[in-house]
Amino acid sequence: MNKQSEKIKTDIRMLYNGSLKKPSNVAREYPALYSKARKIFGSWKTALEACGIDYEKARNRKKWSREKVRREIKKLHLKGQSLRLKELRKNGKVSLISAAAYHFGSWRKAVESSDIHYSFGTNLSGIEKKRVGKNNISAEIRMLNKQRFIYSKPINVYFEITIACDLTCKHCRAEAVPNRSLHEMNTGEIKEFLRDVKELGSHLIISGGDPLKREDLFEILSYAKDLKIPVGVTPTTSHLATYHKIKKMKELGIYALGISLDGATEKSQDSFRGVDGTFENSIRALSYAKELNIPVQVNTTCTKETITEIEGIYKLLAEKFSPPVKRWSIFHLVPTGRGINLQMPSSYQLKSLFQFLYEKSQKAPFRVTTTEAPHYRVYFVLKEKEMDKNKEEIFSKGRSLGFGVRDGNGIIFVSHKGDIYPSGFLSVFLGNVRQKKLSEVYKNNEILQAIRNPDLFKGKCGICPFRFICGGSRARAYATKGDFLETDPLCHFDEEFLKSNS
Ligand code: SF4
Which helix (H) or strand (E) segment is 384 a member of? Predict the structure, then answer.
């Protein structure tokens, strides 16, 4: 009896895997199965329920319109729930799966037709459920932790040269406006600040706002060139980023351009950046960089809204813009500035994204990194261990992701007014370059010293065995909890997992 009922259940599942079937149709088309099921289970309804199939919905498949299927998929995705078939079946979503197959031909097509890239809804590694070593945290990670990763000088000084910008991006940290501020540092003050950067031996990344809104940009670049400071520039991809200006930047010695791309299509990019034509301008800027042979870092902001764009952006960059793209960095939302109105991805989406990034990082024609998502490094190291990569390989690849706390450690940020902050996203005031030397603030400021000490961290980050290689985003802790030593709320590792490895 048991064997027979199991066989019937398997046959019913096979029958319903792919389309919804009304009971009357099954009775007509599969009379043998229909009558056997009724004999063994008492009724077709009970037989369907024994297979986890919603009888009522199966009977009324017309209630599931294409739109309703799409809406339901989006709803699940926004809630951060898994879109894997196995999980959905487990959660009783059989009728949705059947309706999706009926209307779209397959589950995958239904997901994609809901504007969700399939791998973001369905991929998931079980890595975070495992212990790292046999019993506890592995020897390699202990060794890494011992290094503490304190940077004695900033590798990069980020300089927001202006907050003037013609775009109105939804996530803008600087809350940029069209006109320049009266409080901006003038050319002379900037030159003095550059001499300090020279003394520090750091790279200078000029950002904004839009650096191209300053008429003295080329004079400043020329001065930096004379001082032999390596400079990168991240212009806004507006109509101001012309071929002539990008060429001039190259002649003035910049070593890289930063270009933003948050959407894989005109519709998504322009809506996120608030101005029509931005996608086209970004593509044009990438083409200029390719023609002029300027290395590019592409920056992509990751929010609940843009996460579905990431796979498309990767394809675009890998197929058309490699070169000039040398590095692709996924900036994870810190809810600050205009970004306070945006949502962070769910834990589930984040895990899927990390898996996607890890997989791409193995074969991408450029480096794949994250900004303000340091726990990706932990994911990366664990994944490499799972793949049985040797210690040296893990260390060297991991180091290139930049171990250790990032905000105020290895980087520092100077605003258009000369205010110093640990990073662009962490608005804890440390001093002003008009009054203090940046080098002195970087070395001696007590706030920075606290930020660089993971033993002071609180909550989950405080007990985390990976806090020295990761440290969480101090900026996000501050933006969400008002305390830069608190836990990074974006971290998807659960406390149990962290405890089991401490
Ligand atoms: S708990 Fe904090 S330190 Fe640990 S992995 Fe998560 S973000 Fe990083």
Answer: helix 375-386
